[in-house]
Amino acid sequence: MKTTIHQVANYLEQEVTIGVWLSNKRSSGKIAFLQLRDGTGFIQGVVAKSAVTEQTFELARSLPQESSMYVTGKVVEDTRSPFGYELQVTELSLIHEATDYPITPKEHGTEFLMDHRHLWLRSKKQHAIMKIRNQVIQASYQFFQKEDFVKVDPPILTGSAAEDTTELFHTKYFDQEAYLSQSGQLYMEAAAMAFGRVFSFGPTFRAEKSKTRRHLIEFWMIEPEMAFFTHEESLTLQEEYITFIVTHVLDNCSLELDILKRDKQVLEQIRSPFPRITYDEAIRWLQEQGFEIEWGEDFGAPHETAIAEIYDKPVFITHYPKEIKPFYMKPDPQREELVQCADLIAPEGYGEIIGGSARIDDLSLLEERYKEHQLSGDSYKWYLDLRKYGSVPHAGFGLGLERTVAWLSGVEHVRETIPFPRLLNRLYP
């Protein structure tokens, strides 16, 4: 029976055939231990000299790392294995013999591994991170479908900016100026006026010359937008969404979290509601702790980390000054200099994973913001139309996938949470 490593539990004490690569091996006299992978998981294949032909045993002992083959054997339980099963091999059929595989079991430097990212993805740790990423994506789709959202795909090439144009990649669109999208939000607002509750999932681009462990040039965002939603209702939805994701990762990626040595008890504490602190309160607290920061300044990584360390859950920082936030955010009715917004800061120094706000739904106020931010009426005319024809209160947010995966996985740098990272100094491979 041909199957995958992930499915071997269904064939206990039966003989199966799996297409695999050899990730590592060791031999001890009359037994060879093969560490095998097929993309769905890892399993040990035990080749006993007494159970196979001489040719098969010699092949098992001599095969180089990352050679590909079909392996046939009986599935048995193995309580010593984190996976719980192993394969008692009876036959090997070589497909391709790899030679001089560059990533050996020894330690390698980060730059070397990044230069060989196309191969580094095969390693057990990187495989575990990508499986967690996949689970976050799957859980996101499940959550939003459950909440009656419709998935809508905004364009990647745009004629206008959602935020600061200095962080955009410019390109020529025939005889016009165009940009790579830094957010699908404005288009998702239009979609929300058609479908009520919508979400997008796609790549975004920031031409920000940052080298921190939290930043990528190209990253993926999940951006929900909700008509007839208040800011408070949006915060509640964000709490439910994060809790849903964490639960799904714990339920479906236990082995991967163990491979990464992630403390699962930390994640098990992540349940709504989340603590909240206002921008004013955060500034006062930071100043009391000796940070040199004034009201009206945005928070940097050290500030966010210090605030997050107070809590064992993600924390919302709410009601920022309008001067440091994008033009579309709705003012706080009690204090016009503030906007109804929130950043969700992950624990353990992983920084902002969600940014969201209520959106301005009043046409005259949005026109004022256009003038203040010197926005082109021609480029954003369609966005004004949303306030002319059936405007409603609405809110939305964006979750950065890579930062979220880094936090859940416990890995230090977001470059390991995307298959092929684009960094300030890296466009290869």
TrEMBL record:
CDD domains: AsnRS_cyto_like_N, AsxRS_core. It is found in: Cytoplasm. GO terms for biological process: asparaginyl-tRNA aminoacylation. It is an enzyme of class 6 (ligase). Its EC number is 6.1.1.22. One of its GO terms (cellular component) is cytoplasm. SUPFAM superfamilies: Class II aaRS and biotin synthetases, Nucleic acid-binding proteins. The gene is asnC. It comes from Gracilibacillus halophilus YIM-C55.5. This is Asparagine--tRNA ligase. Belongs to the class-II aminoacyl-tRNA synthetase family. GO terms for molecular function: asparagine-tRNA ligase activity; ATP binding; catalytic activity, acting on a protein; nucleic acid binding; transferase activity. Keywords: Aminoacyl-tRNA synthetase, ATP-binding, Cytoplasm, Ligase, Nucleotide-binding, Protein biosynthesis. Homodimer. It catalyses: tRNA(Asn) + L-asparagine + ATP = L-asparaginyl-tRNA(Asn) + AMP + diphosphate + H(+). InterPro entries: Aa-tRNA-synt_II, aa-tRNA-synth_II, aa-tRNA-synth_II/BPL/LPL, Asn-tRNA-ligase, Asp/Asn-tRNA-synth_IIb, NA-bd_OB-fold, NA-bd_OB_tRNA.
